[in-house]
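Exercise 3.2. Students should predict the tertiary structure of the chain below and write it as structure tokens, then compare their answer with the key that follows.

Predict this chain's 3D structure.
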Amino acid sequence: MAPYDLVVIGGGTAGLVTAAGSAGIGARVALVERARLGGECLWNGCVPSKAIIGVARAAADARASARFGVNTGTVEVDFAAAMRWVQDAQQRIAPHDSPERFRGLGVEVIEGGAKFTGERTIAVDGRQLDAKRIVLATGSAPAVPPIPGLADVPFLTNETIFSLTSQPRTLLVLGGGPIGLELAQAFVRLGTAVHVIEAAPRLLPREDHELATLLGERLTAEGVQLHLGLKASRVELAPDGRGVRVTASPDGDPEVGRGPIVLDGDALLVATGRTPRHESLELARGGVEVRHGGIIVDDHLRTTAEQVWAAGDCVGPLRFTHVADYQARLVIRNAFFPLASKADYSAVPWVTFTEPELAHVGLTEEEARERYGERARIWRRPFADVDRAITDGETQGMVKLVTTARGSILGGHILGHGAGNMIGEITLAMKHGISAHALGSTIHPYPTYPEAIKQAAEQYTKSRFTGFTKRAVNWYVRR
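Answer key:
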């Protein structure tokens, strides 16, 4: 049989987009997946986490409704029904990623584990596939830190927490990153007591410090107990034999600084990052090299093997579904057509889906001041001053624009209700070189939350109305 034009290994976002797009341009494509199509996003990540966040938001809104004059009485959460909502959401989305759909698109879906047997040959459970091109899209797995005792106790990750059938009374969370914080807030709103243990002295170190601090205050106000600057030094069974005990101290050393804290819970969530998944592929046989655990790729997403590309979480540097989608589309162009395009990560947005949401694109204030010094400018618009936010009672947070002195947008950060739905406007401006002045002079519908973006950008224009310009205008209108 003639070789496939493309063999894709991995049925998550990057693999599915690559397979569907390649088949759409007429390529003969095989898609290999050892588990279910849909990958991390559908089964363990974006979909179930946002579903449980939606349930938790409904519970929180019901409890807070009295401020609007709407009295609901005592709010009770049926945890089993909540988890059924999560699973139902997955099942409603799953057909879009199903083997049947992809076979209908002309993709040969092969179930099984893949490994290289040569530079362009793949074995799948004893069957050999010959390929003109290969794309690796094998995703990532939860990173489990080497904490003494952790391997000897039951713990949850994002791969297992959505299978819970009974609600934990107390949940311990290792890691104060996006996954840990999203689920911590969700479970508190469902009625679980939650402790978050984070080794860093601040939450979300990649985010704007000012906004991350405000988010931490909101989480604390809702009941999430944050333990920052403490590293888990030991994990063991709780004295009752049914729960988990975590000992944490600065740098994991009980003798340094503060003494250790000891926390007991009946469930432990490990949310300490992700690690690329590729161990079973026998990459060396295909000439594919790795560094620091990740598959090495160039700016065009080609690996160290000439006809092998990689996309998604197994590559990085940003492990988001929308980045995997972008990389997959880039791989299709570069694998099949001349004039290869380079990956551009200069304007990649992402969102931490707490409430309020924290959205990010480009440089933070700290990064901009380090890179541009006094030429960096910061423009803020608190939602407390935005009419729509006031009417909805969603006044916490702000829009924060980072620009050069000449108004070029370097970054945008939004902490607020629906921030993830707004950050695309700033991303578009950055991508296409739209200035803060142009953004501020664009008509926005009233009353809406994105008015805060316009109003923040307007501050740049107002800041230019000084000196000679102001004197000249004053003379002109008084002549």
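Discussion points: Residues 150-272 form a domain with the FAD/NAD(P)-binding domain fold (CATH 3.50.50.60). The first helix runs from residue 13 to 24.
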